[in-house]
Amino acid sequence: MTKRSKTKFYPVAMTIAGSDSGGGAGIAADLRTFNALGVFGTCAITAVTSQNPAAVRRIDALDAGAVTAQIDAVCEKIAVKYVKTGMLYSSAVISAVAGAVKKHDFILVCDPLMVSTSGHKLLQDEAIETVKSELLPLASWITPNIPEAELLTGCRISGVADMLTAAGKLSEQYPGAIWLKGGHLSGNAGVDVIIRDGRKYIISAPELPLPPFASHGTGCTLSAALTAMLPLDLSWKQAVCGSKAFVYGSLAQTVEIGPGVNAMYPPLDDYSSMIKLEAQDD
Predict the structure, then answer these.
(1) Using only C-alpha atoms, what is the Rg of the chain?
(2) What pLDDT band is residue 188 in, cutting at 50, 70 and 90?
(3) What is the dihedral of CA 254, 258, 260, 264, to 10 degrees?
(4) If we measure between CA atoms, which residue out of 29, 26, 100, 37 comes closest to residue 64?
(5) Which residues is 202 bridged to in the sheet?
(6) Are the beta carbons of 131 and 101 closer than 8 angstroms?
(7) pTM above 0.85, yes or no
(8) H or E, element range at 110
(9) What are phi and psi of 29, to 5 degrees?
(10) What is the pLDDT of residues 116-154, one digit of tens each?
Protein backbone atom coordinates (compact mmCIF):
# COMPACT_ATOMS: atom_id res chain seq x y z
CA MET A 1 0.00 0.00 0.00
CA THR A 2 1.36 3.46 -0.90
CA LYS A 3 1.27 5.67 2.14
CA ARG A 4 1.09 9.43 1.71
CA SER A 5 0.44 12.01 4.36
CA LYS A 6 -2.55 14.34 4.16
CA THR A 7 -0.30 17.08 5.59
CA LYS A 8 3.15 18.34 4.64
CA PHE A 9 4.62 16.32 7.52
CA TYR A 10 5.33 12.63 7.83
CA PRO A 11 2.13 11.04 9.20
CA VAL A 12 1.95 10.91 13.00
CA ALA A 13 -0.43 9.21 15.42
CA MET A 14 -0.64 9.19 19.20
CA THR A 15 -1.79 6.51 21.60
CA ILE A 16 -3.02 7.45 25.07
CA ALA A 17 -3.15 4.17 26.96
CA GLY A 18 -1.59 1.90 29.54
CA SER A 19 1.63 -0.05 29.13
CA ASP A 20 1.65 -3.83 28.81
CA SER A 21 4.83 -5.33 30.23
CA GLY A 22 4.18 -8.47 28.18
CA GLY A 23 4.15 -6.47 24.96
CA GLY A 24 0.94 -7.86 23.51
CA ALA A 25 -1.49 -5.01 24.11
CA GLY A 26 -1.60 -1.37 25.17
CA ILE A 27 1.18 1.05 24.27
CA ALA A 28 3.47 -1.71 22.99
CA ALA A 29 0.90 -3.06 20.53
CA ASP A 30 -0.14 0.42 19.42
CA LEU A 31 3.39 1.65 18.66
CA ARG A 32 4.26 -1.62 16.92
CA THR A 33 1.17 -1.23 14.74
CA PHE A 34 1.87 2.43 13.93
CA ASN A 35 5.39 1.52 12.87
CA ALA A 36 4.27 -1.42 10.71
CA LEU A 37 1.81 0.81 8.86
CA GLY A 38 4.32 3.57 8.16
CA VAL A 39 3.15 6.10 10.74
CA PHE A 40 5.35 7.83 13.34
CA GLY A 41 4.09 6.84 16.77
CA THR A 42 3.89 9.04 19.86
CA CYS A 43 2.36 8.18 23.21
CA ALA A 44 1.07 9.28 26.59
CA ILE A 45 1.10 6.52 29.22
CA THR A 46 -1.84 6.46 31.63
CA ALA A 47 -0.87 3.45 33.75
CA VAL A 48 1.87 0.87 34.11
CA THR A 49 0.51 -2.66 34.16
CA SER A 50 2.39 -5.72 35.33
CA GLN A 51 1.02 -8.40 33.05
CA ASN A 52 1.58 -11.24 30.64
CA PRO A 53 -0.84 -12.69 28.07
CA ALA A 54 -2.57 -14.75 30.76
CA ALA A 55 -3.09 -12.25 33.58
CA VAL A 56 -2.81 -8.69 34.84
CA ARG A 57 -0.90 -8.81 38.14
CA ARG A 58 -0.88 -5.16 39.10
CA ILE A 59 -1.87 -1.69 37.88
CA ASP A 60 0.00 1.47 38.86
CA ALA A 61 -1.97 4.41 37.53
CA LEU A 62 -0.51 7.82 36.73
CA ASP A 63 -2.27 10.96 37.87
CA ALA A 64 -4.14 13.18 35.43
CA GLY A 65 -1.48 15.88 35.49
CA ALA A 66 1.20 13.46 34.34
CA VAL A 67 -0.96 12.35 31.41
CA THR A 68 -1.74 15.92 30.38
CA ALA A 69 1.93 16.86 30.60
CA GLN A 70 2.90 14.06 28.22
CA ILE A 71 0.27 15.08 25.67
CA ASP A 72 1.17 18.77 25.82
CA ALA A 73 4.91 18.07 25.57
CA VAL A 74 4.42 16.00 22.42
CA CYS A 75 2.15 18.57 20.82
CA GLU A 76 4.64 21.41 21.43
CA LYS A 77 6.86 20.11 18.66
CA ILE A 78 5.06 17.31 16.81
CA ALA A 79 2.11 17.71 14.44
CA VAL A 80 -0.28 15.25 16.06
CA LYS A 81 -3.81 15.18 14.69
CA TYR A 82 -4.95 11.55 14.98
CA VAL A 83 -5.17 10.00 18.45
CA LYS A 84 -6.47 6.78 19.94
CA THR A 85 -7.33 6.10 23.55
CA GLY A 86 -7.12 2.75 25.28
CA MET A 87 -6.86 2.10 29.01
CA LEU A 88 -7.59 5.36 30.86
CA TYR A 89 -8.55 3.78 34.21
CA SER A 90 -9.85 6.75 36.24
CA SER A 91 -12.40 9.54 35.93
CA ALA A 92 -9.71 12.17 36.49
CA VAL A 93 -7.59 10.88 33.60
CA ILE A 94 -10.61 10.56 31.32
CA SER A 95 -11.56 14.19 32.01
CA ALA A 96 -7.99 15.30 31.39
CA VAL A 97 -7.84 13.43 28.08
CA ALA A 98 -11.20 14.88 27.00
CA GLY A 99 -9.80 18.33 27.76
CA ALA A 100 -6.70 17.59 25.70
CA VAL A 101 -8.79 16.37 22.75
CA LYS A 102 -10.64 19.69 22.73
CA LYS A 103 -7.53 21.80 23.36
CA HIS A 104 -5.51 20.24 20.55
CA ASP A 105 -8.45 19.55 18.21
CA PHE A 106 -7.57 15.87 17.89
CA ILE A 107 -9.43 13.43 15.66
CA LEU A 108 -10.16 10.69 18.17
CA VAL A 109 -10.54 6.93 17.92
CA CYS A 110 -11.87 5.77 21.30
CA ASP A 111 -11.36 2.16 22.28
CA PRO A 112 -13.35 2.16 25.56
CA LEU A 113 -11.09 -0.36 27.28
CA MET A 114 -12.85 -1.64 30.39
CA VAL A 115 -11.92 -5.30 30.96
CA SER A 116 -8.86 -7.27 29.84
CA THR A 117 -9.16 -10.54 27.93
CA SER A 118 -8.10 -12.30 31.14
CA GLY A 119 -10.99 -10.65 33.01
CA HIS A 120 -9.12 -7.92 34.92
CA LYS A 121 -10.83 -4.54 35.29
CA LEU A 122 -9.03 -1.82 33.37
CA LEU A 123 -11.49 0.96 34.21
CA GLN A 124 -12.76 1.95 37.63
CA ASP A 125 -16.52 1.48 38.03
CA GLU A 126 -17.23 5.17 38.62
CA ALA A 127 -15.27 6.06 35.47
CA ILE A 128 -17.76 4.40 33.12
CA GLU A 129 -20.13 7.36 33.34
CA THR A 130 -17.24 9.76 32.69
CA VAL A 131 -16.35 7.87 29.51
CA LYS A 132 -19.98 8.05 28.39
CA SER A 133 -20.51 11.73 29.19
CA GLU A 134 -17.12 13.32 28.44
CA LEU A 135 -15.07 11.20 26.02
CA LEU A 136 -17.39 9.31 23.68
CA PRO A 137 -19.15 12.49 22.48
CA LEU A 138 -15.76 13.70 21.16
CA ALA A 139 -14.84 10.54 19.25
CA SER A 140 -14.86 10.21 15.47
CA TRP A 141 -14.74 6.42 15.91
CA ILE A 142 -15.81 4.29 18.89
CA THR A 143 -14.60 0.66 18.86
CA PRO A 144 -16.13 -1.35 21.74
CA ASN A 145 -16.07 -5.12 22.03
CA ILE A 146 -19.15 -7.11 23.09
CA PRO A 147 -18.74 -6.79 26.91
CA GLU A 148 -17.97 -3.08 26.58
CA ALA A 149 -20.98 -2.47 24.34
CA GLU A 150 -23.17 -4.29 26.88
CA LEU A 151 -21.88 -2.02 29.65
CA LEU A 152 -22.38 1.11 27.57
CA THR A 153 -25.87 0.28 26.33
CA GLY A 154 -27.39 -2.11 28.86
CA CYS A 155 -28.18 -4.46 25.97
CA ARG A 156 -27.60 -8.20 26.13
CA ILE A 157 -25.66 -9.27 23.03
CA SER A 158 -25.77 -12.89 21.91
CA GLY A 159 -25.66 -12.61 18.11
CA VAL A 160 -25.20 -10.33 15.13
CA ALA A 161 -28.77 -9.04 15.33
CA ASP A 162 -28.11 -7.93 18.91
CA MET A 163 -24.87 -6.32 17.77
CA LEU A 164 -26.77 -4.26 15.21
CA THR A 165 -29.25 -3.19 17.88
CA ALA A 166 -26.52 -2.20 20.36
CA ALA A 167 -24.48 -0.38 17.72
CA GLY A 168 -27.62 1.43 16.64
CA LYS A 169 -28.23 2.55 20.20
CA LEU A 170 -24.68 3.86 20.48
CA SER A 171 -24.97 5.66 17.14
CA GLU A 172 -28.09 7.43 18.42
CA GLN A 173 -26.22 8.61 21.52
CA TYR A 174 -22.91 9.68 19.95
CA PRO A 175 -22.01 11.51 16.73
CA GLY A 176 -19.04 9.34 15.75
CA ALA A 177 -18.96 6.13 13.77
CA ILE A 178 -19.45 2.91 15.75
CA TRP A 179 -17.35 -0.21 15.17
CA LEU A 180 -18.69 -2.99 17.38
CA LYS A 181 -16.26 -5.91 17.43
CA GLY A 182 -17.75 -9.40 17.52
CA GLY A 183 -14.74 -11.44 18.54
CA HIS A 184 -16.30 -12.46 21.87
CA LEU A 185 -19.10 -14.29 20.07
CA SER A 186 -18.26 -17.89 19.21
CA GLY A 187 -18.75 -19.03 15.64
CA ASN A 188 -19.32 -15.59 14.15
CA ALA A 189 -16.39 -15.91 11.69
CA GLY A 190 -14.89 -12.58 12.71
CA VAL A 191 -18.08 -10.58 12.13
CA ASP A 192 -18.14 -6.93 13.26
CA VAL A 193 -20.80 -4.26 12.88
CA ILE A 194 -20.12 -0.71 11.71
CA ILE A 195 -22.57 2.18 11.71
CA ARG A 196 -21.42 5.36 10.01
CA ASP A 197 -23.52 8.32 8.86
CA GLY A 198 -26.66 6.37 9.71
CA ARG A 199 -25.80 3.41 7.48
CA LYS A 200 -25.17 -0.11 8.78
CA TYR A 201 -22.40 -2.40 7.58
CA ILE A 202 -21.12 -5.87 8.33
CA ILE A 203 -17.37 -6.37 8.08
CA SER A 204 -16.16 -9.95 8.26
CA ALA A 205 -13.24 -12.30 7.80
CA PRO A 206 -13.08 -16.12 7.63
CA GLU A 207 -12.77 -18.10 10.84
CA LEU A 208 -9.18 -18.61 11.89
CA PRO A 209 -8.07 -21.31 14.35
CA LEU A 210 -5.89 -19.60 16.94
CA PRO A 211 -3.08 -20.98 19.11
CA PRO A 212 -3.09 -20.24 22.88
CA PHE A 213 -3.05 -16.55 23.87
CA ALA A 214 -2.87 -15.35 20.26
CA SER A 215 -5.92 -13.09 20.58
CA HIS A 216 -4.36 -10.99 23.35
CA GLY A 217 -4.27 -7.39 22.14
CA THR A 218 -6.62 -7.70 19.17
CA GLY A 219 -8.75 -4.74 20.24
CA CYS A 220 -5.77 -2.48 20.84
CA THR A 221 -4.25 -3.49 17.52
CA LEU A 222 -7.46 -2.85 15.59
CA SER A 223 -8.02 0.63 16.99
CA ALA A 224 -4.32 1.45 16.52
CA ALA A 225 -4.45 0.27 12.91
CA LEU A 226 -7.51 2.42 12.25
CA THR A 227 -5.82 5.43 13.85
CA ALA A 228 -2.73 4.84 11.69
CA MET A 229 -4.84 4.59 8.53
CA LEU A 230 -6.63 7.89 9.09
CA PRO A 231 -3.68 10.24 8.25
CA LEU A 232 -3.17 8.42 4.95
CA ASP A 233 -4.81 9.04 1.59
CA LEU A 234 -7.51 6.42 2.05
CA SER A 235 -11.29 6.41 2.09
CA TRP A 236 -12.92 5.37 5.35
CA LYS A 237 -13.88 2.04 3.77
CA GLN A 238 -10.28 1.41 2.74
CA ALA A 239 -9.18 2.35 6.26
CA VAL A 240 -11.52 -0.06 8.03
CA CYS A 241 -10.85 -2.91 5.61
CA GLY A 242 -7.13 -2.30 5.88
CA SER A 243 -7.34 -2.30 9.68
CA LYS A 244 -9.33 -5.52 9.74
CA ALA A 245 -6.89 -7.13 7.31
CA PHE A 246 -3.94 -6.07 9.43
CA VAL A 247 -5.43 -7.71 12.53
CA TYR A 248 -6.40 -10.82 10.57
CA GLY A 249 -2.90 -11.11 9.17
CA SER A 250 -1.39 -10.56 12.61
CA LEU A 251 -3.47 -13.48 13.88
CA ALA A 252 -2.65 -15.64 10.87
CA GLN A 253 1.07 -15.03 11.30
CA THR A 254 1.50 -15.26 15.07
CA VAL A 255 4.90 -15.78 16.64
CA GLU A 256 5.71 -18.07 19.58
CA ILE A 257 7.24 -15.97 22.36
CA GLY A 258 7.37 -18.57 25.14
CA PRO A 259 6.45 -22.20 25.83
CA GLY A 260 2.90 -22.52 24.55
CA VAL A 261 2.52 -18.74 24.32
CA ASN A 262 1.74 -17.14 20.96
CA ALA A 263 1.39 -13.49 20.07
CA MET A 264 0.07 -11.37 17.23
CA TYR A 265 2.76 -9.85 15.05
CA PRO A 266 2.60 -7.53 12.01
CA PRO A 267 2.02 -9.75 8.98
CA LEU A 268 4.43 -10.11 6.08
CA ASP A 269 1.59 -10.71 3.60
CA ASP A 270 -1.46 -8.72 2.49
CA TYR A 271 -4.75 -10.19 3.71
CA SER A 272 -7.06 -7.57 2.19
CA SER A 273 -8.74 -10.15 -0.03
CA MET A 274 -10.02 -11.97 3.07
CA ILE A 275 -12.10 -9.01 4.26
CA LYS A 276 -15.69 -8.30 3.23
CA LEU A 277 -17.54 -5.06 3.92
CA GLU A 278 -21.25 -5.22 3.11
CA ALA A 279 -23.93 -2.56 3.52
CA GLN A 280 -27.11 -3.74 5.24
CA ASP A 281 -30.53 -2.86 3.90
CA ASP A 282 -32.81 -1.28 6.48
Answers:
(1) 17
(2) low
(3) -20
(4) 100
(5) 193, 278
(6) no
(7) yes
(8) strand 107-110
(9) -65, -40
(10) 555 666 787 788 899 999 999 999 999 999 989 998 999
